[in-house]
Specification:
A hairpin with a 7-residue loop joins strand 3 and strand 4 (99-102). This protein has a 4-stranded antiparallel β-sheet with strand order 1-2-3-4, with no helix packed on it. Strands 5-6-7-8 form a 4-stranded antiparallel β-sheet, with no helix packed on it. Strands 9-10-11-12 form a 4-stranded antiparallel β-sheet. It has helices at residues 9-46, 63-67, and strands at residues 72-75, 78-82, 88-91, 99-102, 107-112, 115-119, 125-129, 136-137, 143-149, 152-157, 163-168, 175-176, 182-188, 191-196, 202-207, 214-217, 222-227, 230-237, 246-252, 259-261, 267-273, 276-281, 287-292, 301-302, 308-314, 317-323, 329-335, 342-343. With 345 residues, the protein is mainly beta. It is 12% helix and 43% strand. The protein is globular, with a radius of gyration of 27 Å.
């Protein structure tokens, strides 16, 4: 026969008090978890890290953009750019939600993770948060051709004969890579390919640790870019005796072997994205043209009507400086198909 257990009033109060505490603690825990989740979601939405925006770069920008001053870069579903008014801006790839995130911008823009890296006031390297906050100077030497890969910054030290250096993104572990005056470079895996001004712009390569410096080509190379395992660059070429040389597009292998001429037009400001080469056609008032990168085409297709410099390509947009009659440049963007031309703030 089961026994009936009864509690006296004091025991009943103690039992109720324990149950009440458990219920209160459980409810508080649920509320704290819910509040934390809501806060995270709201912060993610407010800072633009939602869905596609959670994609973080490991390489801060394309080398073609950096070769063209690098005033625009993309990460996830945001494009960051240096505006005409001098500030740092961001917008969606469709041009919406454009806003200034910091009144002080810069060039050689790289976006990796939660930081924007750039060359700002005094030609020093800076970084700021994706919302424009916490702008911080990283180094104390005038720098150029800033390239961020993972947690490493590669750059040219303009104060020490243009030699190439690298350091961590927090400014530590500064390491010299070469002793050549370097005009431009591209990092590809463990190799860096660059134009050596001390050897009349000849092309060299060197390991990222500074070893195995190797000569590749006597061409006077500019705008070095690697795409689909091949090196593209501009170099002067004389076609007819007595005529002025033209800057034309070449393609070669990474060992400096077989060289292919890709165009007969006098060009500048080359930028390569995917299967297309974009450039300023000097023979047509500096307007932007494009040709297939793998077809060896001799003439290109015109994209815009402006005298254009510093071609940056981000997504479907071309950012460029339109040069007016007074030789002043203003930042515009236009679709790669030639539509949607717009002056930027």
């Amino acid at each position: 026969m089961a026994r009936k257990i009864t509690l006296d009033k004091n025991e009943q109060k103690k039992s109720f008090s324990k149950k009440q505490k458990i219920i209160i603690i459980s409810a508080a825990a649920v509320l704290l978890i819910a509040a934390a989740l809501i806060t995270i979601l709201l912060l993610n939405k407010s800072e633009g890290f939602w869905g596609e925006d959670r994609v973080f770069n490991t390489i801060g920008n394309t080398q073609s953009n950096i070769n063209n001053v690098g005033f625009a870069a993309r990460q996830g579903n945001w494009i960051y750019f240096w505006g005409n008014l001098g500030g740092m801006y961001r917008m969606r790839p469709d041009g919406s939600e454009m806003k200034e995130i910091n009144p002080s911008g810069g060039y050689s823009i790289n976006v990796v993770g939660e930081w924007i890296y750039y060359i700002g006031g005094g030609e020093y390297i800076y970084k700021m948060r994706l919302d424009g906050s916490e702008a911080t100077k990283i180094n104390d030497v005038q720098s150029g051709y800033l390239t961020v890969i993972g947690d490493t910054i590669y750059y040219i030290n303009a104060e020490i004969n243009g030699h190439m250096y690298k350091m961590k993104t927090d400014g530590t572990q500064i390491t010299k890579i070469n002793s050549d005056t370097t005009e431009s470079f591209v990092v590809s895996g463990d190799w860096i390919y660059y134009s050596n001004l001390d050897d009349e712009y000849a092309m060299y390569k060197i390991r990222t640790d500074g070893s195995q410096r190797t000569f590749l080509s006597y061409d006077e190379v500019e705008y070095i870019t690697i795409s689909n395992g091949l090196i593209y660059y501009l170099a002067p070429q004389e076609f007819n005796e007595g005529e002025l040389e033209k800057m034309v597009i070449f393609r070669t292998t990474t060992d400096g072997g077989t060289k292919t001429l890709l165009g007969l037009q006098d060009v500048d400001n080359m930028n390569i994205v995917g299967n297309w080469i974009y450039y300023s056609n000097i023979e047509d008032k500096g307007t932007i043209y494009k040709i297939p990168a793998d077809a060896g085409a001799r003439t290109g297709t015109r994209v815009n009507d402006d005298h254009s410099q510093n071609i940056n390509i981000v997504g479907d947009w071309i950012f460029y400086l339109a040069i007016d009659e007074d030789e002043l440049g203003f930042l515009y963007k236009i679709k790669t198909d030639g539509t949607g031309r717009m002056m930027l703030p």
